């Protein structure tokens, strides 16, 4: 018996085209599968607090092309407004959101540089969406995009830092708008003022929500400057700084997510984007604190793949020695209640410390650890004394 699956109709309120025009139009539609439609759908599926909407004006690739690109040529920006009649019932907004995230991630892989709008949305969904599958997918996308950005150590604001609120952020962004307008209008000294305004944004303590707002504003202003033949290196650097900030804040929050599949994805994201220091500091703490299966499995896998942290040329010494890591992994190999993780930890130790030990028995790895500890604690053997009068020995 066939089962009728629920689906959401995509907005397509356009008259049918004559047959002679369909062939010509099909050529244009071949290139309409862009990322823009996925960003549009994500905006329609979420309210200002990232809650799912059960009525939305979702669009297909073809519908988006017709409405926003083809009709936009003749009717201007007004065609993008959503009217009440455009809204359709969405039976599964969480599923629609996940589907759009997957397609957005897939289409964004072909871009040489991350699109700031994609960074903004993935960071938002990774932390605020109510669906754990959507949060996991967004974190996985940030991992990919973060590989093309100088992300660094994932971090939230410190306990002694107060995030910049709207009353602090708004005037700084307003000043940035004024200086960019002056740049486009080729006013004297405008370039220097843009640099000062960008520095003022960087100086703020921004949490993820404020960072996203600043990123959206900076992105639109950069596009305005480029379209006005007045590109600004300072503005471009600000956009990149805010992208990295959003990825760092989102990954730091995802490491503390209530669901283990999101934490596991965040561990992989930190390992790929954070560099040696993030691996050494952040992931070591997770190895000592984490108790759930999926995050621990992810930790052991990335350790086996990347090896233990090593000093970077000319860099600081790792905060945790190889012995610290090995001892922590051995505890999992010998004591963890889940057999799968014990075996995973043993295989990780085989890669990073003991390739000669092929056993998957806890008692063998316990004995190996005890022997290793005894060898480390054994004092160095003093050289044998020589009889008086021999060469090199004082009488």
Structural description of this entry:
The protein has 395 residues and is mainly alpha-helical. It folds into three domains: 32-109, no CATH class; 111-156 and 163-273, no CATH class; 275-376, no CATH class. The chain has 16 helices and two strands. The protein has helices at 19-29, 36-45, 61-75, 93-108, 116-128, 132-146, 166-184, 190-202, 208-227, 233-254, 260-273, 275-289, 293-306, 322-335, 339-352, 362-377, and strands spanning 55-56, 88-89. Strands 1-2 form a two-stranded antiparallel sheet. Helix 5 runs antiparallel to helix 9 and helix 6 crosses helix 10 (233-254). It is globular and about 75 Å long. It starts with 18 loop residues before the first helix and ends in an 18-residue tail after the last helix.
Throw out a few tags for this protein.
single chain, 3 domains, mainly alpha, two-stranded antiparallel sheet, 395 residues, disordered N terminus
What order do the helices and strands come in, and which of them pair?
Blueprint: H1 19-29, H2 36-45, E1 55-56, H3 61-75, E2 88-89, H4 93-108, H5 116-128, H6 132-146, H7 166-184, H8 190-202, H9 208-227, H10 233-254, H11 260-273, H12 275-289, H13 293-306, H14 322-335, H15 339-352, H16 362-377
Antiparallel strand pairs: 1-2
Helix pairs in contact: 2-4, 4-6, 5-6, 5-9, 5-10, 6-10, 6-11, 7-8, 7-9, 8-10, 9-10, 11-12, 11-13, 13-15, 14-15, 14-16
């Amino acid at each position: 018996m066939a089962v009728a699956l629920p689906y959401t109709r995509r907005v397509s309120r356009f008259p049918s085209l004559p047959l002679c025009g369909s062939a010509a139009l099909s050529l244009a539609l071949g290139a309409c599968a862009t990322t823009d439609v996925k960003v549009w759908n994500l905006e329609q599926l979420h309210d200002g607090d990232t809650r799912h909407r059960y009525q939305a004006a979702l669009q297909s690739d073809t519908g988006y092309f017709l409405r926003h690109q083809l009709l936009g040529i003749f009717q201007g920006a007004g065609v993008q407004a959503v009217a009440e009649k455009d809204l359709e019932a969405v039976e599964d907004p969480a599923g629609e959101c996940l589907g759009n995230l997957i397609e957005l991630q897939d289409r964004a892989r072909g871009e040489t540089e991350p699109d700031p709008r994609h960074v903004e949305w993935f960071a938002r969904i990774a932390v605020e969406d109510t669906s754990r599958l959507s949060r996991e997918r967004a974190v996985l996308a940030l991992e990919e995009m973060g590989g093309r950005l100088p992300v660094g150590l994932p971090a939230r604001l410190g306990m002694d830092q107060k995030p910049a609120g709207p009353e602090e952020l708004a005037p700084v962004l307003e000043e940035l708008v004024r200086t960019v307008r002056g740049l486009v209008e080729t006013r004297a000294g405008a370039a220097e003022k843009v640099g000062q305004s960008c520095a003022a944004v960087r100086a703020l303590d921004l949490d993820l929500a404020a960072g996203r707002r600043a990123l959206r504003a900076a992105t639109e202003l950069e596009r305005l400057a480029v379209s006005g033949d007045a590109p600004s290196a300072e503005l471009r650097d600000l956009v990149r700084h805010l992208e990295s900030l959003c990825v760092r804040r989102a990954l730091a929050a995802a490491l503390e997510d209530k669901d283990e599949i999101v934490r596991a994805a965040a561990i992989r994201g930190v390992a790929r984007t954070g560099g040696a220091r993030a691996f050494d500091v952040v992931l070591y703490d997770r190895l000592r604190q984490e108790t759930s299966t999926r995050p621990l499995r992810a930790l052991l896998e990335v350790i086996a793949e990347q090896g233990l942290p090593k000093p970077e040329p000319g860099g600081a010494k790792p905060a945790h020695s190889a012995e610290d890591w090995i001892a922590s992994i051995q505890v999992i190999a010998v004591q963890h209640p889940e057999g799968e993780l014990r075996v995973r930890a043993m295989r990780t130790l085989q890669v990073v410390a003991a390739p000669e030990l092929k056993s998957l028995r806890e008692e063998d790895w316990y004995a190996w650890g005890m022997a290793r500890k005894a060898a480390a604690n054994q004092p160095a053997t003093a050289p044998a004394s020589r009889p008086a009068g021999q060469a090199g020995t004082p009488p």
